[in-house]
From TrEMBL:
Listed EC numbers: 5.6.2.3
Gene Ontology molecular function terms on file: 4 iron, 4 sulfur cluster binding; 5'-3' DNA helicase activity; ATP binding; DNA binding; hydrolase activity; metal ion binding
Reactions that this protein is recorded to catalyse: ATP + H2O = ADP + phosphate + H(+)
Organism listed in the record: Salvia divinorum (Maria pastora)
Domain Helicase ATP-binding, residue spans: 7-285
Family statement drawn from the similarity comment of this UniProt entry: Belongs to the helicase family. RAD3/XPD subfamily.
Annotated protein name in UniProt: DNA 5'-3' helicase
């Protein structure tokens, strides 16, 4: 169907559209017209991706004089492939409607590990090894030697790509990673370098968050992008954590030992080069006098990670004289490594800011801030001069230089925390120096400043007003949408006690209580006997999951559960978890039914869908608060309070509830789907102080009883963690709108009764297009009537 949104004709590849999709497009267009940034929370299973793609591509088609590029950022390769599949379907419809004029070039970009077609390279065990194996075949100096010596191995795909030069292009179309590999094999060209080159010409590019948020990667991949670009961060509920991780560095004893070995080898290479080709070292010295930015554009096979922090104007400065000579630079790094080794020998926890840390380095080993600031790029230059290709062997010294450059660049927003051991295992020495970034806005600030519009969207952004403060930006549009349903196919419940009326909670001093463990087990057992097909359980941590499953095994509860369904468990090992998921789905497909035990914040919670019969019920055992004794977390909370006036409790609750919402959201992936969500936790019973304002009480649900006598109000409530307003209000609106008063403060037997009734109701036939005047599918005619004001639709 096609319809008008103001001056834009939107091409939508389906015959009907959801009301929330249309509202989403309206708000998105407002942001694009204003050339500003926006925050949009769209319920899960409502076609957010296709709505986004349809509006933005149609917007570009409607304004050919002002072409806009789309950068679509995803968290995983799986999500990237799904987005490109949706785009291919949309592109086919647009070409059908408009002809060749609607043709675009869209492609996905990932690491060499996912794009390489050379069997000798791609067989390496991890991404870093694949990168190094590629450089050993494609570096300019290796290829130069190979011309004279045919026995030197080369990459035939890269050689063919280089030989084709400007003729190596992708024809218009939509290319997934698999398509790129197939095209590369057909043409004999390297698909990785072909995709890297075509990024600057493509209309739509789909790639990972790190390609924009990690300065080391963004400096290479995304540096050519024009300002007239719309950037979309999909599933961006954890974007602040991604930003922080991009600028954080951990250094352990193993890192420093590896760095020392790297320095020894580089020293040997320098001596070898002095004896064979001293001119290269002199040429490098002269280039460094002019500034790192004057080294010119590197050949595609020689590119390396960019600087993690330095802006272009700094790189134009001359490198400090005492690190220009290669041997002097290695001496500086040795002193820095030795200093870090000394700091790791502490027997107590130490915490300091970057300024104090840099002053300590300067006073003890004579390395000043400017020398530290240039370490990363100076190392890059030296490795190119020494013609080092096995970069995976030099990851340790890269980490040290990354640390040096970051502490030499930033004075605020970071902490250096040195811990001699993990608090949870105090008898095992494991010293670690952590450079912790606390300010997520540092990594994303260049994205906001550089590009025309940035769209941050997800199904779980509530409360949406926290993100502008965390990321330090001002959105022109900030909106949360509800979900339109023809039937109540979402059934959230809050369970606070077991059948024996004892409270259940994962509070630290209660989580190991045998009564709590028994009640949680009985809840799962009762639900396994009632709910068909798949049940997904999320725990607050791996250790808690291991402990409670072991307890269920010893008490016989696990054996009883397995009489109804098979049980599968997520582990730290990706291969084991993937195998468990495959077998879980097979059990659901065969009708045997299964239970999957998973962990909040884990891989399964973030990227795996349990739609249809794979997830009829999801149970969230407890609330997944972060480890509140973590010194890194405490330092970040202190920074957020002082800099952005975000209270510690507000942030912890916000973070825990977004993780809980993300977990339970795995169970509903479309409007035709149905499922139940159980939030199983009651932390305490509380009496609200008499001095609390009337406005606070007015927001409580009917489960609370309010007595007013003149100006004095007394609230008597069985206040449970999930039914308290301050917690519930941080859940997405599409969950809250289905959380009835009667479904809060439940016991196990009450929850089982509600589950039976819900499943019986879901078994009845229903009208998918809309019933009782509630329209959940809009046709082109409906949209035209809406625009013309002929009919008022019920959303």
């Amino acid at each position: 169907m096609k319809f008008q949104i103001e001056d834009v004709t939107v091409y939508f590849p389906y015959d009907n559209i959801y009301p929330e999709q249309y509202s989403y497009m309206l708000e998105l267009k407002r942001a694009l017209d204003a050339k500003g940034h926006c925050l949009l929370e769209m319920p899960t299973g409502t076609g957010k991706t296709i709505a986004l793609l349809s509006l933005i591509t149609s917007y570009v088609l409607a304004k050919p004089s002002n072409p806009v590029k789309l950068l679509y950022c995803t968290r995983t390769v799986h999500e990237m492939e799904k987005t490109l599949a949706e785009l291919r379907f949309l592109h086919g419809y647009q070409v059908k409607e408009l002809g060749p004029s609607a043709g675009i070039l869209a492609l996905g970009l990932s690491s060499r590990k996912n794009l390489c077609v050379n069997p000798r390279v791609v067989s390496a065990e991890n991404r870093d090894s694949v990168d190094a194996a590629c450089r050993k075949l494609t570096a300019s100096w290796v290829r130069a030697v190979a011309i004279e010596n045919p026995d030197i191995p080369k990459c035939d795909f890269f050689e063919s790509y280089e030989k084709a030069a400007s003729d190596a292009v992708l024809p218009p179309g939509v290319y997934t990673l698999q398509d790129l590999r197939a095209f590369g094999k057909q043409k004999g060209w390297c698909p990785y370098f072909l995709a890297r080159r075509m990024v600057q010409f493509a209309n739509v590019v789909v790639y990972s968050y790190q390609y924009l948020l990690d300065p080391k990667v963004a400096g290479i991949i995304s540096k050519e992008m024009q300002r007239e670009t719309v950037v979309v961060f999909d599933e961006a509920h954890n974007i602040d954590n991604v930003c922080i991780e991009a600028l954080s560095v951990n250094v352990r004893t193993q890192t420093l030992d590896g760095a020392s070995r790297n320095l020894s080898r580089m020293s040997q290479e320098i001596e070898r080069l002095k004896a064979t080709d001293a001119g290269r070292l002199r040429a490098e010295y002269n280039r460094l006098v002019d500034g790192l930015a004057q080294r010119g554009d590197l050949l595609s096979g020689d590119t390396w990670l960019a600087n993690p922090a330095l802006p272009d104007d700094i790189l134009k400065e001359a490198v400090p004289g005492n690190i220009r000579r290669a041997e002097h630079f290695l001496s500086v790094l040795r002193r820095f490594v030795q200093y870090l080794k000394g700091r790791l020998q502490t027997e107590s926890v130490e915490k300091e800011g970057p300024v104090t840390f840099v002053a300590s380095i300067n006073s003890q080993v004579g390395i000043d801030q400017k020398m530290l600031k240039f370490c990363y790029d100076r190392l890059h230059s030296l490795m190119l001069t020494l013609e080092i290709t096995d970069t995976d062997e030099f990851l340790h010294i890269q980490t040290i230089c990354d640390l040096a450059t970051l502490v030499g660049t930033y004075t605020r927003g970071f902490s250096i925390i040195i811990e001699p051991f993990d608090e949870r295992m105090p008898h095992i020495p494991d010293p670690v120096l952590q450079l912790c970034c606390h300010d997520a806005s540092l990594a994303i600030k260049p994205v906001f400043e550089r590009f025309q519009s940035v769209v941050i969207t997800s199904g779980t952004l509530s409360p949406i007003d926290v993100y502008p403060r965390l990321l330090n930006f001002n959105p022109v549009v900030s909106r949360s949408f509800t979900i339109s349903l023809t039937r109540d196919c979402i059934c959230p419940m809050v369970l606070t006690r077991g059948s024996d009326q004892l409270p259940v909670s994962t509070k630290y001093d209660l989580r190991s209580d045998p009564g709590v463990e028994k009640n949680y087990g009985k809840l799962l057992l009762e639900m396994a006997s009632v709910v068909p097909d798949g049940i997904v359980c999320f725990f607050v941590s791996y250790s808690y999951m291991d402990g409670i499953v072991n307890s269920w095994h010893e008490s016989g509860i696990l054996k009883e559960i397995m009489k109804h369904k098979l049980v599968f468990i997520e582990t730290h090992d990706v291969v084991e978890t993937t195998l468990a998921l495959d077998n879980y789905r097979r059990a659901c497909d065969s009708g045997r039914g299964a239970v999957f035990f998973s962990v909040a914040r884990g891989k399964v919670a973030e990227g795996i869908d349990f739609d249809r019969h794979y997830g009829r019920l999801v149970i969230m055992f407890g609330i997944p608060f972060q480890y509140t004794l973590s010194r890194i977390l405490l330092a970040r909370l202190e920074y957020l309070r002082e800099t952005f006036q975000i209270k510690e409790g507000d942030f912890l609750t916000f973070d825990a509830l977004r993780q809980a919402a993300q977990c339970v959201g795995r169970v509903i992936r479309s409007k035709a789907d149905y499922g139940m969500m159980i939030f199983a936790d009651k932390r305490f019973t509380i009496f609200i102080p008499v001095s609390a304002p009337i406005e606070y009480f007015s927001t409580w649900r009917k489960s609370s009883t309010i007595y007013r006598t003149f100006d004095v109000c007394l609230l008597i409530a069985s206040a449970l963690r999930y039914s308290r307003h301050d917690k519930r209000s941080k859940l997405p609106s599409w969950i809250l709108s289905h959380l009835r008063d009667a479904h809060m403060n439940l016991s196990t037997d009450m929850a089982v009764h509600i589950a039976r009734e819900f499943l019986r109701k879901m078994a009845q036939p229903y009208d998918k297009s809309g019933a009782m005047g509630k329209r959940t599918l809009l046709s082109q005619e409906d949209l035209e009537k809406m625009v013309n004001g002929v009919e008022e639709m019920v959303f």
